[in-house]
Amino acid sequence: MPLALLPDPLGPFVQKREIVKPTAGDGDGGEGLTPEEILSWTPSGDADRYRDYQVAMALPYVDRSVLIVGEQTGEFADRLVRLKGAGLERLVLTDRDQNWVDHLERRFRHFRGAEVLRLELPGVPDIQPVDTVIMVNVLGYMSNDVGAVRALTKVTQPRGRFVVWEAAFPKLLSEFDEVRANRLLRYAPETLWESLWEGGLDVEFSRPINLLGGLFNLIRPPKEFADPRLVRLYDRTVVPLSRRLDCKSLPFGQNVFAVATRPPAG
């Protein structure tokens, strides 16, 4: 049989797709898209398990009103709305790119508790205080991460929580991170703890997660935006196992996950 006619051994995991720029490390969206590309954006489904992973980690710490910073595509918020249900009364979504803000307004126009606005940190959003602030891969792109945290505490209720997911471990910082993804830093659990504490928060914990993702990056640092076929394969085979390992005390991982609390007033 000619080689071209051999069946694909990876089957439905790797249907051919156009390469897309990642956002929040999950393979969709991205900085620098044109307004037309954003207008026509739809989720590929290539990183569904990874997105579910992120939301599942945050969900136990989410209260009735939530501010999601740098939400961009709305995939995280969409899952949160479905999982939290009637327990989510108010949802505030921000992004620094007005085109993504317009996208979020279209996507969440039917959610009665949704507010969408443009926010360039360390600016303070013009909103009523919320119970929970969620940041997924936001602080690592900030030249003043402490200032960003301080700004957000001003719109957080006393004893309100910050839920933070960031790229982990400075030794994983690659040329791809700095040049192509425009990431300024990766955090060790201790350095993320310090940034949150200096921003005025009481840190409950800051710990490594996603061990297998970290090992993949350590062995083969990314040099280019990932082929979505490989993203899909990774999403279906590696992510579920890596999630199960998070119940253990890990010394290392691709990400660091932290929860902190705004102290009571006075």
Protein described:
The radius of gyration is 19 Å and the shape is globular. The chain is of the alpha/beta class and 266 residues long. Helix content is 33%, strand content 19%. It has a seven-stranded mixed beta sheet, with helices on both faces. The longest helix is centred in the N-terminal third of the chain and has 11 residues, at 48-58. Helix 2 (48-58) crosses helix 3. The chain is built from ten helices and seven strands.
Produce the secondary structure layout.
Elements: H1 35-39, H2 48-58, E1 65-69, H3 75-84, E2 90-95, H4 98-107, E3 114-118, E4 130-136, H5 145-153, E5 156-167, H6 175-180, H7 189-198, E6 202-209, H8 211-219, H9 228-237, H10 239-245, E7 255-261
Parallel strand pairs: 1-2, 1-4, 2-3, 4-5
Antiparallel strand pairs: 5-7, 6-7
Order of helices and strands: HHEHEHEEHEHHEHHHE
How many strands?
Answer: 7
Largest sheet: 7 strands, mixed
Q: Are there runs of 5+ residues with pLDDT below 50, and where? A: 1-27
Radius of gyration of CA atoms, rounded to a whole number: 19 Å
Strand order across the largest sheet: 3-2-1-4-5-7-6
Mean pLDDT: 86
Number of DSSP helices?
A: 10
How far is the N terminus from the C terminus? 77 Å
Task: Tell me the β content.
Answer: 15-25%
Shape: globular
Judged by helices, strands and strand pairing, the structural class is alpha/beta
| Helix percentage | 25-40%
